[in-house]
Design a protein that fits this description.
The chain is of the alpha/beta class and about 725 residues long. About 30% of the residues lie in helices and about 20% in strands. The protein is built from 22 helices and 31 strands. The chain has an eight-stranded parallel beta barrel, surrounded by eight helices. Strands 4-7-6-10-9-8-12 form a seven-stranded mixed β-barrel. Helix 9 links the parallel strand 16 and strand 17. It is elongated and about 90 Å long.
Length: about 725
């Protein structure tokens, strides 16, 4: 591409639609005037075009409204949504407040699913859908609070199909065709079909500029480039779906690929954002423009700076000077080549297990669906594994393991490709030899509800000597070990193969069943890079509090991810509701709402000691944690494992991408009124154990545990639950 000719595109709005500014734009070399249909009605379009053409002959570009979810109007054009509160999302056209908000278009409501995460107004606010109302509206919990305005863009973490060109866009295009406007910018271009649709509506010689501003646009970039006359990178909308720190690399990649066709590339958003209110830019903005030009951009687009800013002429003048300076100083621009793999980027510096910085997280393969003649009944234990494979918790696994993979894991603590992995993930079936073959796609059905859970494409069907596998896995074949008992009482056959989940299952409310991607997103929005993961099967007691606080100190952590196990429970365990609700009380009472994130870990324990300790650490790495707490008897049972075995296995395996923080037994020193880590042989009369069994016994008798054992607010909450007839223990 010819880099010596840089186009300057300006958005017309209240600040620039006047004779003086339009004349200055012409003098300063503006090549195209953009009218943004997202903020322009059809009557306003007619008035704007006529007023512009009365002053200048600069060509006009119609920028379509496009397929985008937006908030409706809100009271006073600005409201604050507070973290932890519930807001109703409605299709009704209302003036929104902190209790109720309108979303448009109303067609999206038929596609919203429980567990969907919404990002409002440049990701200032994060919502998680937790319930559908009888009227068809939705309740959402605010996971990250902040202020939002009227008519602000909304992004989601699950795809919703929207029309690429709206009814209003079609009216605008028809107006443009009648009034000799021949340049169009296609918002949220998703691929060749949306571009073909636009071309079918405009004149044959019209210029189509495709805007790349979504992950779907990135994934379909080659087709978009092939069918477009130019590309416009909207960095603002793109940063709603991609981590902001990745935008520079994306910009380089898009420009490089477009120039290979070749077609020109324009760059928009945040070029001179500070000049919306100030008369002079920041040094960072000037440096950004220079780097954008060095990347090979063929045009720069001013948006809010000229549409609603206080200093539209100064903005145009500054960009014009930057272009002239660039052309004066730079004779040859080095062509930057950036490879791109079309993968999902991670909102966190901790990459999923098994992937390098060049890989990021690989998009799961879409299975080719064959005739679903066969089905396999699965229980909740297996369903949790299906869920965790599909959502990335078990990354890099994409299915249940084959015999080769299990042998490698049991013998070498790794997958056949060398990636560290300590735990078999198995699909053991209770029937005799299944009447299915390698390569078949089989339905997985919940044995309780008879509901389809997903599919598996069979790659292996095999048997194991159960005594052999249990000794290698659990270091015992004793039926007193729960993992051994499960294997021995299970079926004789195992199935390996890739799975695809139909819909996510929720053990409890989706606000406490968040996926790794959603948790990483929240970490990113909170600015957390160093995060301690905490695994527990109990309510919070004082030893937990001590461990969490000390772990945060040791790691210099930004945040704490409290991730209690919510899988199958045995008799005498605290119920899932009791654990989650008591942790909510603890977080609030301890003032940790800005330092801690709570979500459930739906994985069932095999009680395999050291192997499972490493496994649970890797899972928390996949959630974005940088550090992980390892307790004295983490994921063990009885006396099957020695205390030092966990530490030794971590040492043997080396760096797995998440740092373990080891803790000994924590006791209360009644003499010093402090909590201490101590070995069993050093315990004396002054040391009091924080006993989970003692806590359960006292609560069962409706007595308060001592304050040094359990925080008063937590005990009070649990006793109130008991008095209301709620179960806090599994029978």
């Amino acid at each position: 591409m010819n880099t010596n000719w840089i186009e300057l595109i300006c958005t017309i709005g209240p600040s620039s639609n006047n004779p003086y500014v339009l004349r200055r734009m012409k003098q300063l070399g503006v090549t195209l005037l953009r009218i943004n249909m997202s903020h322009t009605s059809i009557p306003q379009l007619d008035k704007m075009v006529k007023s512009v053409r009365a002053i200048t002959d600069i060509p006009i570009c119609i920028d379509t409204e496009g397929a985008q979810i937006r908030t409706g109007n809100v009271i006073n054009n600005s409201i604050e949504l507070k973290q932890g509160t519930i807001v109703e999302l409605t299709k009704k056209n209302i003036i929104g407040n902190f209790r109720r908000l309108t979303l448009t278009p109303d067609t999206i409501f038929a596609q919203i699913k429980i567990g969907t995460m919404f990002f409002l107004d440049f990701n200032k606010v994060l919502l998680l859908i937790i319930k559908k109302t009888e009227s068809g509206d939705f309740l959402a919990k605010i996971m990250q609070g902040g202020k939002i305005g009227s008519n602000k863009a909304v992004n989601i973490d699950n795809g919703i199909d929207l029309q690429s060109i709206t009814k209003k866009d079609i009216e605008a295009i028809q107006y443009a065709n009648k009034n000799f406007i021949n340049t169009f910018a296609l918002s949220f271009s998703s691929g060749k079909e949306s571009i073909k649709h636009l071309r079918s509506l405009v004149k044959k010689d019209a210029k189509v500029i495709s805007k790349v501003e979504s992950r779907k646009g990135i994934n379909n970039l080659n087709d978009i480039i092939q069918y477009s006359d130019a590309i416009l990178i909207d960095r603002g909308d793109l940063s709603r779906e991609e981590p902001i720190e990745k935008i520079p690399a994306l910009q380089k990649m898009i420009i490089t690929k477009a120039h290979q066709k070749p077609i020109p590339v324009y760059v928009a958003t945040n070029l001179l954002e500070s000049m919306v209110a100030n008369s002079f830019p920041t040094r960072a903005e000037i440096n950004d423009i220079a780097n954008t030009l060095t990347d090979g951009a063929n045009g720069l687009v001013l948006a809010a700076e000229t549409a609603v800013g206080k200093y539209p002429v100064q903005c145009v003048n500054m960009v014009d000077k930057m272009i002239k300076q660039y052309n004066s100083d730079i004779e040859d621009i080095a062509k930057l080549e950036t490879s791109w793999k079309g993968v999902d980027l991670i909102n966190n510096t901790i990459l999923p297990h098994g992937y390098s910085s060049d890989d990021y997280r690989i998009t799961p393969k879409q299975l080719k669906k064959k005739k679903d003649k066969q089905s396999i009944l699965v229980n909740s234990f297996i369903i949790s594994d299906i869920n965790n494979i599909a959502n990335g918790c078990y990354s890099p696994l994409t299915g249940f393991m084959t015999k080769e993979e299990i042998d490698c894991v049991l013998d070498n603590y790794s997958l056949p490709n060398g990636i560290i992995w300590p735990m078999p993930i198995i699909l053991q079936i209770s029937l005799g030899k299944p009447n299915i073959g390698i390569g078949e796609t089989v339905i997985l059905v919940d044995g309780n509800s008879n509901k389809r859970v997903g599919h598996i494409t069979i790659s292996d069907i095999y048997k194991f000597d159960k005594k052999n596998i249990t000794k290698r896995w659990f270091k015992t074949d004793s039926m007193k070990h729960p993992g051994v008992k499960r294997i021995v009482n299970g079926g004789d056959y195992f199935i390996g193969g890739e799975i695809k989940q139909d819909d996510a299952y929720y053990k409890i409310s989706p606000e406490y069943c968040m996926t790794p991607s959603q948790v990483r997103t929240i970490f990113a929005h909170k600015g957390w890079e160093r995060v301690v993961g905490f695994h527990t099967r109990n309510i919070p007691h004082r030893a937990h509090e001590y461990i969490q606080r000390k772990a945060m100190e040791k790691a210099d952590a930004d945040g704490l991810f409290i991730h209690p196990a919510i899988g199958e429970k045995k008799s005498g365990d605290f119920t899932i509701d009791a654990i989650i609700e008591s942790y909510k009380v603890y977080i609030d009472d301890a003032g940790l709402s800005n330092k801690a994130l709570l979500s459930g870990f739906w994985a069932n324990s095999w009680y395999s000691g050291p192997r499972e300790a490493v496994f649970t650490a890797i899972c928390r790495k996949n959630y974005g944690c940088s550090h992980f707490v390892i307790g004295r008897d983490h994921t063990g049972v009885g006396d099957f494992y020695k205390q030092n075995e966990i530490h030794d296995l971590f040492e043997k395996l080396g760096d797995i991408g998440i740092k373990p923080i080891f803790f000994n037994m924590v006791v209360y020193n009644s003499k010093k009124n402090v909590y201490e880590e101590i070995s069993m042989e050093k315990i004396s009369a002054k040391h009091k154990k924080v006993s989970g069994t003692k806590v359960r016994d006292l609560l069962t008798k409706r007595k308060f545990p001592p304050e040094w054992m359990v925080r008063t607010a937590v005990s009070d909450h649990l006793l109130k639950c008991i008095s209301k007839g709620k179960k806090i223990l599994v029978k």
